[in-house]
Amino acid sequence: MSDTTSRISDNIDRFFDSDVWWSFKSSKVTIGAAIVTVLIIITAIFAHWVAPQNPFDPAQLDLLDSSLPPVWYADGTWKYMLGTDDQGRDILSALLYGSRISLMVGGASVVAAALIGVTLGLLAGYLGGSVDSLIMRVADVQMSFPAILVALLIDGVARGLLPNERHDELAIWVLIIAISLSTWVPFARTVRGSTMVEKNREYVQAARVIGRRPVAIMLHHVLPNVMGPVLVIATIGLATAILTEAALSFLGVGVPPTSPSLGTLIQIGNNFLFSGEWWMVVFPGIQLAVLVLAVNLLGDWLRDALNPKLR
């Protein structure tokens, strides 16, 4: 137990002495982006306790409070600081709950896409030959189509195969599958290139000599040395996945209105934009833009921090 604690302590000390930590603490923009991202994630996770209202619980809604403006208007109230929508839902609470769904869908999509892409990239780079050609030709074909169109196609096929009564129940899972299957290519291409370099290193050749199986070599020797670029792609991919989910939800093929994400809130608010109730669409739009911008800034910093040429 003491040895484990000592190793953890040593790893923490090495991290705070590393170039990555120095790069982080010396960039005010990165620190600000990290604070914003962590704040949004924490408030989304604990929305049940932080939000003034559960906007998706019909028992807590009152149609008499519908379409109220933000608090700085004459008709506004501190009970609904950012106003309410056409169903009397508190916009601030809807943002917190909607961010939770957007983050959950985006995060799960990135994890699934990384698993698919890293696995195929390792196989293509290490095995080469016909396996490499097949995987890369599939990747090239998919790269010729925008990810949003691929996601729309997959989502449409899945909804056509599922019973109508289960569409809302499985909507989030269908969305995660659609986004992950449309965004695995960058992971595969990057890991393939890194694997082709790493498999010719001396440590991989030594592992072959002592009789280690190819799967063990890929998992225990090659994979840890190609994870740097994967982390960068995953961070930037999170912002892309959140935007893709928002676009699909805005088009009406995302999560159901009973548990809307930021994209669904924007889609709902857009119907009332020209009636003067601008807060229904502007605040969810700002929340989405701030979240995506903060995650992208973190991804840009991580890319530069892990690039030895820029140290």
TrEMBL record:
Any Pfam family matching the protein: OppC_N
GO biological process: transmembrane transport
Alphabetized UniProt keyword annotations: Cell membrane, Membrane, Transmembrane, Transmembrane helix, Transport
PANTHER family linked to this entry: ABC TRANSPORTER PERMEASE PROTEIN, OLIGOPEPTIDE TRANSPORT SYSTEM PERMEASE PROTEIN APPC
Listed name of the protein: Dipeptide transport system permease protein DppC
Gene of this entry: dppC_1
Compartment list: Cell membrane
SUPFAM superfamilies associated with the record: MetI-like (SSF161098)
Family membership: Belongs to the binding-protein-dependent transport system permease family.
Membrane topology: Multi-pass membrane protein
Transmembrane segments: 31-51, 101-127, 139-158, 170-191, 222-243, 278-302
GO cellular component: plasma membrane
Domain ABC transmembrane type-1: 99-299
Gene3D superfamilies: MetI-like
Presence of the UniProt keyword ATP-binding in the record: no
Primary subcellular site in the record, as a coarse category: membrane
Organism field: Oceanibacterium hippocampi
Higher taxonomy: Bacteria, Pseudomonadati, Pseudomonadota, Alphaproteobacteria, Sneathiellales
